[in-house]
UniProtKB/TrEMBL annotation:
Endoplasmic reticulum as UniProt keyword: no
UniProt KW Membrane keyword: yes
Name of this protein: DUF6449 domain-containing protein
Keywords, sorted A to Z: Membrane, Transmembrane, Transmembrane helix
Pfam families attached to this UniProt entry: DUF6449 (PF20047)
Superkingdom, taxonomy of origin: Bacteria
Cross-referenced InterPro entries: ABC-5_transporter, DUF6449
Location of the DUF6449 domain: 443-540
TM spans (from-to): 20-41, 61-82, 102-127, 142-163, 175-195, 235-253, 273-292, 298-315, 335-356
Length: 676
C-alpha cells in the first residue's frame, strides 16, 4: 500500500538499501581511512602537537575524492532505472505516484551518504584522546567538519539526481555532472583570459589572484579544501542550491516521458542550450589556445574560434542524435545561426560600445587610489588558516592613498594610456629595448565600488607621467611595502654573498629601520627605474601570534642609499660584508654586438654562450687589476642586454661567476683603451 501521507514507500527504500548498501559501506570505510585513521599515521615521528584548524587538512586529498565520487555515484546507481527502458517501464508501472518514487530514492540516497559521515565523526571523537600529542583539535572541529561534509554530500547527490532526470543515459549523466560542477570555474577562467586579449587594461592577473575562483566550483574547492575550509556562508549557498535542484527535480520528473530512457537529453527544449554551451566552450578554448601559441596573430586567432565553433557544433549534434551521421540540409543554416549569435555574444563585451577601455573616473568620483605592481599580492585571499604556513607581508595592509597629487598623477597616466595604448615590446625586442613597468591602477570610488586596470607601460615616452607617480610617498609606501618596517622585530639580517651581519640591539634596529625607510622615501625616479646592482639585502623576520613559523621580507640596499651606507661604515659592518675588489679574482668584459650571432638569440638567456663566441673572435678582455675591478663594481648594472652596452663576468675568489652590465659612458679610460 502506498504511504501517501508519508510521501514515500518503505518497501522501495528497503530494496534500495539491499541493492546499493555497498555505496554506504565504501563511503564509511573511505572516510574512516581518510580521517580518524590518519591521526595514527605519520611519516615523521618527531612531529607532535600539530595544530589542526580543520579536519579537511587530514588525508592528503583523499577526502575530496571520496566526497565527490561517492555521492555522485549514488545518484547514478539509484536513478539508473530512468536510463534503461525496461527498468523505467517496470518502475513506472508500479502503483506509486512519481512523487513517491522520487522521494523514496532521494531519501535512500541521503541516508546512504549521511550515515557514513556521522559515523566517521563519532569514531573520530571517540579516538581523539588516543592520538596523544600528535594532533591538536577540538570537538567543535569534528562537528564543523561533519556538518560541512553532510551539506556537500547531499548537494552533490541531489545534483547528480537532477542531471539524471534531465538526461537519458547513465554515462552522460556522470560526465554531465562533473562537467556542470566544474563549468562555472572553467568559464570564469576562459572568459577572463578572453577579456585580457581584447580589452586593453583588463586586469587578468589581479582577478585570477585576488578572487577565490575555487568558490565557483565545489569540485575545485574540495580538492584544495586543506588550504581553505568551507565558510558558513558557502554552506548556506549549497543548502539553497540543494533546495533549488530538488524542487526542479520534482517539477521535471513529473514532465519526463518514460520513453526518453536511452536518449541523450530527456527534454528537447534543453537541446539549444546544450548546443550553444558546448559551442561557446569550444570556441573559447580553441580561440585562446591559438592566440597564446601564435602570438596573437589575427588569422590564427579567428581561425581558432572558427575551428572551435565547428568542433563544438559537431560534438553537440553527435551527442544529441547518438550518431555521427548528422549531415542534412538544415545543418549549414543551423550552424550559421548559432555561430552568428555566439560571435555576437563574444564581440559585444569587448567592443567599443561598452566604453571599458576609455573609462577614466573624474577626480570628484575618487576617494583613494593605488598604482603599482603588487596589487595582486595585497588583495590575494588568505590561502590557509594553517598555523604552519608562512605569514604574508601583504596581509591586512591597505595599499591605497587619498593624497590628491597622487590621485591626479595616476589619473594623468591612465588617461594617456587609454588614448595612446602603447605597444609593449615582446620576444627579442623585450630584451633589447629598455624597461617596461607593470602598473596596476585601482580607484576606490565615492559610490563604494572599485575600478581596476592593469597595464604594461614602456618607460620610454612616459617618463613625465611615471615620474609624477613614482616620486610620491603613496606609491613608495605600497610598492616597497614600508608597512613591514613598522613591526617590532628582535633581529635583522644584512647579507651579501660574502657574509651576514645580524642586528640584535633594539636601538640599532630602530635606527637602521628609520634610515632605510627614509632612503626609500627619498629615492628619485632614476633610482627606481635604474638597473643598479644591490649592494646588500636586508631580511626582516616577522613572527605572528597565530603562526608557528617565521616569515621574512627583504629589502635591497642600493648604491644611492648614502646615509645608510655611511651608517654601516661607521658601525664597522661594511668591512664585514660589502663586496670589494679583493673578493673578485678577475673580470671579463665584452661589447654587446647583436650582428655577430647571425640570428641566434639564445645569448639573451645565456651570457656565457655570448662570452664564449666573443673569446673566439678575440673581442673579450680579462683583467685582474683591482682599480679596474673597483670601477666595475662602482658602475655595474643588472644583466639586461641592450645595444651599446658591455657584458661583464665577475669571477669571485671562490670560483663562482656573476654577470652584470656596464654602460659605455661608465667605462674608465683605461678599459676603453684596452677594449679597442
Amino acid at each position: 500500500m502506498t504511504r501517501a501521507r508519508c510521501f514515500f514507500n518503505l518497501a522501495l527504500i528497503r530494496q534500495n538499501f539491499r541493492q546499493y548498501g555497498w555505496i554506504g559501506i565504501i563511503y564509511t570505510l573511505g572516510l574512516i581511512f581518510a580521517v580518524p585513521l590518519q591521526m595514527f599515521m605519520t611519516g615523521n615521528p618527531s612531529l607532535f602537537n600539530q595544530k589542526v584548524t580543520s579536519l579537511f587538512q587530514l588525508g592528503d586529498g583523499m577526502q575530496g575524492m571520496l566526497i565527490v565520487l561517492i555521492p555522485l555515484s549514488a545518484g547514478l546507481m539509484l536513478f539508473r532505472y530512468l536510463q534503461v527502458k525496461a527498468s523505467a517501464d517496470l518502475m513506472h508501472s508500479l502503483p506509486l505516484r512519481r512523487e513517491h518514487l522520487l522521494t523514496s530514492h532521494l531519501g535512500s540516497g541521503i541516508v546512504l551518504v549521511l550515515v557514513p559521515v556521522w559515523l566517521c565523526a563519532a569514531i573520530t571523537a571517540i579516538t581523539r584522546p588516543w592520538t596523544g600529542d600528535l594532533y591538536d583539535f577540538t570537538g567543535k572541529d569534528i562537528w564543523t567538519w561533519a556538518i560541512a561534509v553532510s551539506v556537500l554530500s547531499i548537494f552533490l547527490f541531489c545534483f547528480s539526481v537532477f542531471v539524471g532526470i534531465c538526461t537519458g543515459q547513465t554515462v552522460l549523466q556522470g560526465i554531465a555532472s562533473f562537467v556542470l560542477l566544474i563549468l562555472p570555474y572553467m568559464l570564469m577562467q576562459l572568459i577572463s583570459y578572453y577579456f585580457s586579449l581584447y580589452l586593453y587594461g583588463y586586469p587578468y592577473g589581479i582577478y585570477t589572484n585576488s578572487i577565490r575562483s575555487d568558490l565557483w566550483s565545489p569540485l575545485v574547492h574540495l580538492f584544495s579544501v586543506s588550504n581553505q575550509a568551507f565558510e558558513v556562508r558557502e554552506l548556506c549557498v549549497y543548502v539553497g542550491l540543494t533546495v533549488v535542484v530538488v524542487a526542479l527535480s520534482y517539477l521535471l520528473y513529473r514532465k519526463r516521458h518514460v520513453e526518453m530512457a536511452g536518449q541523450a537529453i530527456a527534454f528537447t527544449y534543453f537541446n539549444p542550450l546544450f548546443k550553444a554551451g558546448v559551442m561557446l566552450c569550444c570556441m573559447l578554448i580553441a580561440g585562446n589556445y591559438f592566440s597564446i601559441n601564435m602570438s596573437g596573430r589575427l588569422v590564427w586567432t579567428f581561425g581558432g574560434y572558427a575551428i572551435g565553433a565547428v568542433v563544438g557544433y559537431i560534438l553537440s549534434e553527435m551527442v544529441i542524435r547518438k550518431t555521427w551521421h548528422i549531415m542534412n540540409r538544415k545543418i549549414p543554416l543551423d550552424f550559421a545561426i548559432y555561430t552568428f549569435l555566439l560571435s555576437l555574444l563574444l564581440y559585444i563585451p569587448v567592443s567599443g560600445w561598452t566604453g571599458y577601455e576609455a573609462r577614466v573616473p573624474d577626480e570628484g568620483e575618487i576617494t583613494q587610489v593605488y598604482a603599482g605592481s603588487l596589487y595582486n599580492l595585497y588583495t590575494q585571499k588568505e590561502s590557509s588558516t594553517n598555523p604552519y604556513e608562512a605569514y604574508s607581508p601583504f596581509s591586512k595592509v591597505d595599499p591605497f592613498s587619498g593624497d590628491k597629487d597622487y590621485i591626479r598623477a595616476v589619473q594623468k597616466l591612465h588617461s594617456t594610456l587609454s588614448v595612446i595604448r602603447p605597444a609593449v615590446p615582446t620576444g627579442k625586442s623585450f630584451y633589447k629595448d629598455s624597461r617596461v613597468r607593470s602598473m596596476s591602477i585601482v580607484y576606490r570610488l565615492t559610490n563604494g565600488h572599485t575600478l581596476t586596470r592593469q597595464y604594461q607601460v614602456p618607460v620610454v615616452g612616459f617618463e613625465p607621467e611615471l615620474r609624477a607617480i613614482m616620486e610620491t610617498a603613496g606609491y613608495k609606501k605600497s610598492e616597497y611595502v614600508l608597512s613591514q618596517l613598522e613591526h617590532d622585530v628582535k633581529t635583522m639580517n644584512i647579507s651579501t654573498r660574502e657574509g651576514v651581519v645580524v642586528l640584535t640591539h633594539s636601538a640599532e634596529i630602530n635606527e637602521f629601520k628609520a634610515l632605510l625607510r627614509q632612503e626609500i622615501l627619498d629615492m628619485s625616479y632614476a633610482d627606481q627605474i635604474g638597473d643598479d646592482v644591490p649592494l646588500a639585502d636586508v631580511d626582516i623576520p616577522i613572527t605572528m601570534e597565530d603562526r608557528n613559523v617565521i616569515s621574512f621580507y627583504s629589502y635591497s640596499i642600493l648604491p644611492s642609499y648614502h646615509r645608510l651606507l655611511n651608517w654601516l661604515a661607521d658601525k664597522g659592518y661594511s668591512d664585514k660584508i660589502m663586496i670589494t675588489a679583493k673578493n673578485i679574482a678577475s673580470v671579463e668584459i665584452a661589447a654587446f654586438e647583436p650582428k655577430i650571432l647571425q640570428g641566434d638569440h639564445s645569448y639573451y638567456y645565456d651570457p656565457e654562450q655570448y662570452l664564449a663566441i666573443a673569446r673566439k673572435q678575440n673581442r673579450s678582455l680579462v683583467t685582474q687589476d683591482k682599480d679596474q675591478i673597483t670601477d666595475v663594481l662602482k658602475y655595474q648594472k643588472k644583466y639586461v642586454i641592450r645595444k651599446g652596452t658591455y657584458l661583464v663576468k665577475k669571477n669571485y675568489e671562490d670560483g663562482s661567476p656573476e654577470y652584470v652590465l656596464m654602460e659605455t659612458d661608465d667605462l674608465s679610460p683605461e678599459l676603453r683603451k684596452l677594449l679597442r
